[in-house]
Amino acid sequence: MNQIRIGIVGYGNLGKGVELAIRSNPDTTLAFVATRRDPSSVSLKTPDVPVYAYDDLVNHQSDADVVIVCGGSATDLPKQSPELASYFNVVDSFDTHAKIPEHFAAVDAAAKASNHTAMISVGWDPGMFSLMRLYGSCILPDGKDYTFWGKGISQGHSDAIRRVEGVLDARQYTIPIDAAIDAVRSGVQPELTTRQKHLRECYVVAKPDADLEKIEREIRTMPNYFADYDTIVHFISAEELKEKHSELPHGGFVIRTGATGENGEHKHLIEYSLKLDSNPEFTTNVIVAYARAVARLAEEQAYGCKSVFDIAPCYLSPMRREELMAKML
Amino acid sequence: MNQIRIGIVGYGNLGKGVELAIRSNPDTTLAFVATRRDPSSVSLKTPDVPVYAYDDLVNHQSDADVVIVCGGSATDLPKQSPELASYFNVVDSFDTHAKIPEHFAAVDAAAKASNHTAMISVGWDPGMFSLMRLYGSCILPDGKDYTFWGKGISQGHSDAIRRVEGVLDARQYTIPIDAAIDAVRSGVQPELTTRQKHLRECYVVAKPDADLEKIEREIRTMPNYFADYDTIVHFISAEELKEKHSELPHGGFVIRTGATGENGEHKHLIEYSLKLDSNPEFTTNVIVAYARAVARLAEEQAYGCKSVFDIAPCYLSPMRREELMAKML
Question: Least CB-CB distance to A268: which of B276, B317, B321?
């Protein structure tokens, strides 16, 4: 297989993660980075790689085998992924679960119309965790699955706190509750409320004159984000936030329990867990493995949009099929 | 999708497990059981299902969409899987890791020559654990993986003990060593010897006049099976063996640790674990999910032999692709 030339669109945490992941995958090369900022303001970690303006990408269609779209799910990806799928094979990490069918349809239409291969919602959730839910449901059909997230930083919840009046900066940790995990592992298949599954712990830097009680109350009662959870709020200094909470760890668990036998007398437990020091770097490692699959599927003219459910695992590996079978099966 | 008609070849622990698994998968039906014994001596748990003689199967080629070959890997499967792949789409659970390429080649040739779809080595190891090793190596390339088995009954090791002179019956538990698992989880990527990873605990029923010391010495020093391990031998009564050790639990762990970042400064841990009350029933549940995939691939005329690496996860599920994407991604 030739080198897979990868283009990065968007140079934030995810884009930088892709750049590092390419170094760990010797069959991939960084072709370019594209940005909506002024390209001359972007300085890469990789020497001799061009930075293009987003609007100029149409002139670089033959420069990359796959483009990884590293924008946000709220506004960037719904626009950029279908747009770019008209010119490139693309992969994104769209993670607004409720809007996946709609996003899929838009990217699929663009990719099929232009004979490209696309993948959406690649990462660990959606992504590896979705795969584990699917495998679990198929191999243990008389069962139930549970997903827990954390301990880790939720960027969406951190952003929500930053929008509260009087807040300068904040980090929010999502923490799975041990008692709930233990109950799930026991096989009793409990019904768990939102509050019973996760705790939210917030580290907040307030403005000097801010009303701390008011900030805490606003956080704790914020609908969707915090109202349904037990929430702990700590006020700390900007220095402490920087020193102790500037990394982006995350992780979680997908647990499926179920039964087999003539009368369900045999219990089974399947558990997949991740403990990640860097959420964006792990996510982009997953994305680059799937970019390899997209490049191969495009060579096979398997056009249109895919999800992790559609990709045979052998497409992810740089090894040949015979080697995989001999070494890993 | 129509009902998938499944034939079972061999009615031991695995065959009986498939029969139960079919009940948990409403889109599958038991078409027949075939045996090398006298068919009239076999009584099924499912009413109104025919039992055929193995040698008569050639006359029932149109009765099943997929046949699950439930023999042993030592002598049954190397003969039966290629033989049956000439008449049926087949799935087996061949688990002699070193001989997989050879077995694959034989089944592949038979399946391709007769336009059938086949799958070998389906279960949890080889099977789900193989998948986890493959996914782990692709999404965390700068890393290392470890597989631990147990606590569970190893039938091969139990059989080996039964062949020792003076032994009436025996069960052997493979037990992963906690200190080794903890070292792996810590991310230090230790080099572990066979002895450091697993312990072997044996429950042995001896003949009344047997030399127990001699039996224990023979077990502990048996090459390949026990010599490289710390082995504990307990002599117990036939009654105690039956009462406390007649189930077939098993399980294990696939753990991959690795690093990302500019200087490998971010550590990551991926862990997949199984805790199974019944090894054969869980194995056959996995097999029936893959039988669904084989039936679909045969409809698509994707002939030849496959492994779990070749199967896109969506083929395992009775749900439609759109439903999967909306509910599980």
Answer: B276
